[in-house]
Amino acid sequence: MFTFLKLGGSLITDKTRPYTPRPKRLDDLAAQIAAAMQEQPDLRLVLGHGSGSFGHQAASQFGTRRGVAGPEAWRGFAEVWYQASALNRLVVEALRRAGLPAVTISPLSTVTAHEGRVLIWDLYPLQMALGHRLLPVVHGDVVFDEARGGTILSTEDLFAHLARELRPNRILLAGLEEGVWEDFPARKKLLPEITPEGLARQASRLGEAAGADVTGGMQAKVHQMLELVEEISGLEVLVFSGETDGNLRRALAGENVGTRLHR
To answer: What is the pLDDT of residues 212-224, one digit of tens each?
Structure first.
């Protein structure tokens, strides 16, 4: 099974408090990943994570996703990179404590964008990591952009490109919410599944992400993932809570523990 897994920024940080990680949650998630990979020797995994209250704080201040021009904006670009990298280090340290051979594939160093979309990405390092049973880690990051000067690509942006190139079986998006709510923020009606055909009926009621998020809320993520589901045969996407005990391990084992996006 070839799986992409994202640990959402709201899950691994407190998005309502600047630069605040959740170390105990990170350790628990890393332990669940390690257990799943031990139980499933054939599991191939690309791990991504959001920037949460680290990168989003600086990105909101400087408007980096919209483009970069002028000395102050470029200083902001560097600050967003620094904060996103600081959180990435915490994630990799948690994975290392769990015994996982994690290596970061830095988007800034390997990706060039055009108008906020991946234009060029040398995937050889990532493919070599997979081939040697390492755990490649990507994350939301600043990148240079031919049209905008610089921009920010979310983990979902990166996964969208990777999915078209590498064709995973599943994409797992772990956050705080149990899945996609039809009535957010009331949270009384969870959608067990979403299909491209059913989205038109549900789109106006889908909730946005809580906390600062400069790369789009829940609606944007659902639309982006459904585009992939339509394009890549057999792909399914699961939006679920990584906060619930054992949920991540169950999701990696193939259980549908949230909202399933499929054709």
So the answer is: 454 557 888 899 9
